[in-house]
């Protein structure tokens, strides 16, 4: 291109490599600058073209149209013209169809030509085969119209029905001229007639304005071809129409703001910059601004790394300097500091520009904002890293299997548990390590999970063989993976070696069984022992009573009395010890049933009356005991008797005992208050300790120290509570609460 290089040599890369014919035409219609595409597409080198008239290269049939187009361009009606097509002669004498986009700037026309020979050939082929290629016809995005000789629409492509905003019914049978701008009619009419009249194999290309149903004017480009030419006189023609309105409007708008030689650069959405060896920016396309917010003009003359984030600055400098050094290409990613404060990640590709001689002095770099994809990649990487960390750290084995139960993925924990190197088991059926006896149910479980395709997880245990041959018990929980649609079903299995846990569970169960057996043996021993002790004791007591009747001397009677009392005491002791041990071992055999508290209280008052009389303690009450409680008849009487007996025993002489009964929600509280000496604070916590009598023996009061312990245990066993309040020197109140029965006593339970 030498002397006639474009005025902005930085575009030479684009200019040199473009597949389109780039050219500048002078006002006399002669060629100015041309790019190498002319040689590649048509065979003409710049020397052939320079100074020649363009029209000499045009197909004779297209000369008139080309002149008209050229005149229109020079008249400057519209600054940018697109879609004009003509045929140009190649060096070898053949012709190729070229579609032009051109723009006039002062005394020059900048034109870009695209070889559309193949496309037009395709259209011709399509037209010829349109009867057969119905499907194609229907699928076409463009409007395809078949018109008859009277230019009346015979068929309309279904997709095209909204092309002009009218439906098929309205379009069918209508004239193509109906919607056309009156000024464009004559030219279109001529072109259409040519399709039929000349009966050539020619494609007629035309452009016209048409009014859309909504009123706006569209620019329509149509290419037409006669149908059935080879069968003689054509009766129909097919037209393929394209709506150019938007394209033209956009192009026109863009064109307004363009500098002549920078038109290409400006059109780029990407950032294109040219820098020199000092890394100073010589040229910057408007797209540059989007990377950092600084308008392109303000970047010219500044250093290329100025807006680069500090962390990447050195890397960027090195990359460019190395490219200059090697006279070669550069490619990297870097972060830019955007004026608005955020970071923009860009992908840069560039290469040095070929200068006439010596090392390259300039480099062209094209940058693209890839922040979105980088952010996405980073998020993905983070989540992958997290997942991997979890997998790596998990002590469990985590594997992913497919529907054929083949292992697709395995965590490092898998190796730890089974002792197999991961690689050895990958891609194999995951059942290889399962005990043969367990395979059927494991398979069934997994298949059920895949079949159900539900969110429910499964859980089972099986025996698996470790690499070293020993058998383990594995507990597995599984779940279908929530995959995107269309993905084959997969499941994740989380397994854990529970061999030791199972052994522990078994040992525990065995120990419990053992303890239960021992306890049963103890109870057995206790009841036998009590029986064995009570039989001789009863004869001791019996003989003592006989002796009491036989003997007369006061001394003897006192001795026998002593034997009798000691025997009685021993019998109570044995019974109570036995009861406590029975309650503790759960062998007391309580039968709770609805009981009328009143019946029990009156019965106990009867029994205790002699003891009260003996100590001259009066017992009184005013509350009603007419409540049904849920309790064991015998054991509740034992409790009431114990409380009454204590209230008498630990009372002062001529003291009194008062009974109370109140209802609290669904409980009944029964209390026994005495007028004794109360219990000292420091002794209170020892009240319920077995055999602890709080020094009562020192005061000569009979007892075993077991009564309260037993009473509390019994009440609790019946679902109640037992407690007390006491005031030193004033007396104590012992109470119990039991649930009120909802069934009346004596009523049939069934
Ligand atoms: P004991 O056979 O000695 O009566 P208990 O278990 O019934 O055994 O009572 C334990 C101890 O609690 C008694 O020895 C006595 O010192 C004290 N005690 C029980 N009831 C009363 C009471 N109503 N007033 C004062 N002290 C009491």
Number of domains: 6
CATH superfamily of the largest domain: Histidine kinase-like ATPase, C-terminal domain
Mean pLDDT metric: 79
- How many distinct beta strands? 27
Structural class computed from helices and strand pairing: alpha+beta
CATH architecture of the largest domain: 2-Layer Sandwich
Description of the molecule:
- 38% of the residues lie in helices and 26% in strands.
- The chain contains 23 helices and 27 strands.
- With 750 residues, the protein is α+β, with helices and mostly antiparallel strands.
- The strands form 6 sheets. Strands 2-1-5-4-3 form a 5-stranded antiparallel sheet, sandwiched between helices. Strands 7-6-10-9-8 form a 5-stranded antiparallel sheet. The protein has a 5-stranded antiparallel sheet with strand order 12-11-15-14-13.
- It folds into 6 domains: 9-119, PAS domain (Beta-Lactamase), CATH 3.30.450.20; 140-249, PAS domain (Beta-Lactamase); 268-375, PAS domain (Beta-Lactamase, 2-Layer Sandwich), CATH 3.30.450.20; 394-497, 2-Layer Sandwich (Beta-Lactamase), CATH 3.30.450.20; 504-584, Signal transduction histidine kinase, dimerisation/phosphotransfer (DHp) domain (Helix Hairpins, Orthogonal Bundle); 589-739, Heat Shock Protein 90.
- The chain starts with 11 loop residues before the first helix and ends in an 11-residue tail after the last strand.
- The model is unreliable at 1-10, 124-141 and 252-268 (pLDDT under 50).
- The structure holds adenosine-5'-diphosphate.
- Adenosine-5'-diphosphate is lined by residues 642, 646-647, 650, 674, 676, 679, 687, 693-694, 696, 703-709, 732, 734.
């Amino acid at each position: 291109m030498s002397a006639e290089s474009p005025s902005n040599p930085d575009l030479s890369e684009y200019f040199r490599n473009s597949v389109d014919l780039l050219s500048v035409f002078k006002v006399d219609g002669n060629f100015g600058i041309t790019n190498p595409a002319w040689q590649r597409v048509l065979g003409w080198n710049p020397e052939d073209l320079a100074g020649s008239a363009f029209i000499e290269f045009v197909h004779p049939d297209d000369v008139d149209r080309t002149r008209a187009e050229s005149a229109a361009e020079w008249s400057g009606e519209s600054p940018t013209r697109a879609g004009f097509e003509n045929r140009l002669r190649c060096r070898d004498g053949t012709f190729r169809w070229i579609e032009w986009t051109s723009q006039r700037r002062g005394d020059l026309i900048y034109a870009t030509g695209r070889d559309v020979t193949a496309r037009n050939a395709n259209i011709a082929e399509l037209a010829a085969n349109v009867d057969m290629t119905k499907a194609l016809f229907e699928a076409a995005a463009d409007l395809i119209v078949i018109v008859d000789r009277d230019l009346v629409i015979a068929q309309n492509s279904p997709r095209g029905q909204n092309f002009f905003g009218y439906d098929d019914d309205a379009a069918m049978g209508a004239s193509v001229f109906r919607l056309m701008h009156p000024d464009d009619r004559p030219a279109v009419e001529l072109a259409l007639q040519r399709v039929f009249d000349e009966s050539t194999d020619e494609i007629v290309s035309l452009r016209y304005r048409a009014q859309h149903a909504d009123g706006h004017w569209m620019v329509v480009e149509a290419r037409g071809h006669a149908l059935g030419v080879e069968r003689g006189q054509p009766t129909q023609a097919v037209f393929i129409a394209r709506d150019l309105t938007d394209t033209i409007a956009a192009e026109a708008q863009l064109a307004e703001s363009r500098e002549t030689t920078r038109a290409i650069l400006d059109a780029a959405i990407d950032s294109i910059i040219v820098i020199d060896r000092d890394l100073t920016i010589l040229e910057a396309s408007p797209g540059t601004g989007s990377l950092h917010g600084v308008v392109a003009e303000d970047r010219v003359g500044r250093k290329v790394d100025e807006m680069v984030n500090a962390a990447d600055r050195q890397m960027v400098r090195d990359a460019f300097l190395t490219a200059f050094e090697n006279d070669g290409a550069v490619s990297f990613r870097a972060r830019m500091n955007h004026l608005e404060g955020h970071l923009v990640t860009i992908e840069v590709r560039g290469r040095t520009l070929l200068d006439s001689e010596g090392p390259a002095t300039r480099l062209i770099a094209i940058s693209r904002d890839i922040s979105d994809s980088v952010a996405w990649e980073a998020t993905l990487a983070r989540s992958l890293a997290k997942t991997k960390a979890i997998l790596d750290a998990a002590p469990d084995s985590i594997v992913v299997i497919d529907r054929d139960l083949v292992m697709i993925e395995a965590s490092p924990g898998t190796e730890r548990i089974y002792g197999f190197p991961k690689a050895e088991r990958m891609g194999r059926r995951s059942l290889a390590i399962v005990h043969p006896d367990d395979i059927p149910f494991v398979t069934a479980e997994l298949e059920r999970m895949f079949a159900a395709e539900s969110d429910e997880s499964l859980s089972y245990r099986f025996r698996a063989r470790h690499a070293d041959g020993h058998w383990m018990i594995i507990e597995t929980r599984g779940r279908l993976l929530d995959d995107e649609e269309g993905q084959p079903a997969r499941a994740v299995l989380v397994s854990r070696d529970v061999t030791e846990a199972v052994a522990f569970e078994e040992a525990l169960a065995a120990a419990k069984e053992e303890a239960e057996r021992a306890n049963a043996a103890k109870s057995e021993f206790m009841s036998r022992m009590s029986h064995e002790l009570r039989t001789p004791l009863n004869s001791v007591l019996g003989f003592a009573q006989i002796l009491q009747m036989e003997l007369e001397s006061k001394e003897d009677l006192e001795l026998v009395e002593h034997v009798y009392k000691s025997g009685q005491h021993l019998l109570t002791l044995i019974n109570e010890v036995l009861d406590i041990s029975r309650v503790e071992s759960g062998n007391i055999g309580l039968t709770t049933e609805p009981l009328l508290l009143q019946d029990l209280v009156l019965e106990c008052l009867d029994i205790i009356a002699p003891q009260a009389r003996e100590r001259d303690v009066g017992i009184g009450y005013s509350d009603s005991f007419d409540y049904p409680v849920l309790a064991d008849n015998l054991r509740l009487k034992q409790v009431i008797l114990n409380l009454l007996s204590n209230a008498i025993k630990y009372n002062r002489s001529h003291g009194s005992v008062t009974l109370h009964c109140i209802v609290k929600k669904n409980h009944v509280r029964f209390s026994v208050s005495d007028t004794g000496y109360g219990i000292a604070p420091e002794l209170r916590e020892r009240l319920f300790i077995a055999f602890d009598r709080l020094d009562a023996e020192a005061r000569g009061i009979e007892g075993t120290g077991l009564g309260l312990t037993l009473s509390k245990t019994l009440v609790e066993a019946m679902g109640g509570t037992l407690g007390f309040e006491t005031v030193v020197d004033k007396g104590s109140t012992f109470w119990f609460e039991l649930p009120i029965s909802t069934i009346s006593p004596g009523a049939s339970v069934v």
